[in-house]
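Subject: sequence -> structure tokens, single chain

Hey, anyone have a minute? Need the predicted structure for the following. Not urgent.
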Amino acid sequence: MPKTASPTPSAGSPAGPMTSLGSLLREWLPRQRWFAGKDRPVTDLRLLSMTELFPGCLHLLVHAEHADVASGPGTVPSPTGTPAPPPADCYQLLLGVRREPAPRLHRAFIGRPEEGPLAGLAVYDALCEPRSAQLLLERMRHPGTFGPLHFEADASVPIPDALVPRLLDAEQSNSSIIYGDEFILKVFRRIQPGVNPDLEVPWALAGQDCTRVPAPVAWFRTTQPEPATLGVLQPFLRDAADGWTLALRALATGDDFTAQAHQLGQATAEVHLALADAFPTGAHQDIARTAATMTEHLEAAAHSVPALRPYATRLRTAFAALASCDAGPPAQRVHGDLHLGQVLRAGREWFVIDFEGEPSRPLAERRIPESPVRDVAGMLRSFDYAARQRRPWRPEWARRCREAYCAGYASLSGWDPRKKHALLRAYETDRAVYEVLYEARHRPDWLAVPMAAIERLAVRGG
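Reply:
Had a minute. Here:
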């Protein structure tokens, strides 16, 4: 801490710092994009660990409990079909503490505690401060241990010093800092025990010489209260644009996007093949269990979104049809949340990023082998979303992109998603049901987008 500040609170006495921070964090946390419990009142905040990362910056892991609404109407069961756990989350915070914050940090300001060891000091989100971001990179450049925090790196990749940091403003479920347009650090906000797939998968693919996924350069983790990944540093593709932006640009200018879609299908197949080599593949999935889980998702969503109910009976046929179809390719590690926003194009090459999967799912579930059809269906739905961002809607644009993507995928994968009609329809239906529930809760103005897919899948079967 700065010499003018109060003594650094002891991590061994968590009641002390939470006396200062508890009321501030109760108000600040629900306003953050990455906070998962916005619709559930915070009932308890508990400090799990605290480390003075460097003077004036505290690293915290905070346990947040919410009012128990997990079993209420509209709750979507987990993909395993098991009941949802009690609503509680662990969050990673890096808090700056000063007597007076710099004027440029007004947006990062959290508040001034009125009591406890930090009373009267200014507390702010340290990731928004260039000095703190630079010092965090220094920890990555010089691996070591700081209390329960472990900083590690790939020694074969040098990290230059004096890289200017900038925090990404885009809304996302984590926080990302770009350093000198050379590296990007993703700081995970919602922490679950275990190795995060966004470290595990790119590291394994690097061992397969898969160039479609930027390899981790450095990372940090904690050993308390349980081992968990906290952040990953990777190369930043400075001249890249994400697939969503490129698709919307093509729609706006009337340009064709089928060549890019075909190449993206090939890139997806390359990543799937590398994943199958890097991780043990499972047996063919249990079709009956998959159908039952998808049906549970549908029932829960229809209970919550009345607009879905008229289609529910016909949508069930998509899942019932799985009983008479082949299981498709073997289960394997997949991306888990593949869409146009998760791919980057630099020059003429596509890259796949963000292997964290759906953050709302337990980490252990995100690491379970699944059918690669799940990823294909996610990308097909994304083409549909893009086509419906402009009026008049362009369903033919989405259809051409879908065909080109599947053709590109089939050219390298050894199997054609279009020939697995029942399986692909079921996964696309499951994804559309998820989208309906999400849009109804968070973006009602977008509900028409997945509902159009629901009508297509229910009425015409694909």
